[in-house]
Amino acid sequence: MSIIVLGTVALDSVKTPYGKRVHMLGGSAVHFAMSARLFAPVNLVAIIGEDFPKKYIDFLHQKGLILTSLIKERGNTFKWEGEYEGDLNTALTLNTELGVLSIFHPQISPQQRKIKYIFLANLDPDIQRHLLQKMSSPKLVGLDSMNYWINHKRRALLRLLKEVDIYVANDQEARSLSGENNLLKAAKYLYNCGPKMVLIKKGEHGVLFFAPKFIFSLPAYPTDKVVDPTGAGDTFAGGFMGYLAKVNKINPITIKKAIAYGTVVASFNVEGFGIERTANLTLKDLRNRMKRFKKCILF
After folding, report:
1. Phi and psi at residue 171, to the nearest 5°
2. Cβ neighbours of residue 251 under 8 Å, at least 6 residues apart?
3. Mean pLDDT of successive 10-residue segments in the chain (299 residues)?
4. Rounded to the nearest 5°, which phi and psi values hold at 257?
5. CB under 8 Å to 267, separation ≥6 — which residues?
6. pTM, whole model, 2 decimals?
7. Partners of 148 in beta bridges
8. So what CATH class is 3-297?
9. Domain locations along the chain
């Protein structure tokens, strides 16, 4: 089964205790696609500007991504600059340039409208809803967001939550939107907003999944070298959605496995800047680390 992801394709500049990178390939859709591609064909829906390097487009093609809905417009590509200091769980945003993202109207082909697995990565909820309304009969719709949209477009986000199957949020976002400090209470609140399932990412502390008859928690894969956590959440979502699309079954067993695969692929992401580690990742690499992860969590 194919996946369609709506999100950003960006030029990221990041500084961490391990160094600095300027205008590297990034964005929510790219990080998602780098992991989802290991399981299923990925259709990428995004916008870039005239300044977007051709080498990055060639790279995305080489990775097998379907770019028919990657729009190029006059203007500059979305750029984000951030810095991580002591707490590598939280980025300090230094600069954001929306560029052509401010005029983005997703366009997809008639064939893409039939895709069953949809992920709405971090974007304006009105743009996310615009794409969702184009889809004919989705089987699983995942949604991500961020504090900016929670604070500035709360009503639009809450309306969209009623139309999706799974809401993916980090712990800060879950607390902000729900007003609950306890994450289980936050998950229950978010479930009552409309989605059938809620998945809360807790960074180095793992993941909490909530559905009325199924609660599941998994720790993060143990790693002692976090170089750059940018995009780790999107990478997790790509592994999670990719696995579900591959098996084309949604039940407690496949959800647990999907969460585990998402967790493991995210552990690769944090070991390098941007997509340095996930760009050349293979399913064999992923499965080998999954075997080690199982030994950590089983007794």
Report:
1. -65, -40
2. none
3. 96 95 97 98 98 97 97 96 83 91 94 97 95 95 92 94 96 95 97 97 92 94 91 96 97 96 96 96 96 85
4. -65, -40
5. 220, 221, 223, 289
6. 0.95
7. none
8. alpha beta
9. 3-297
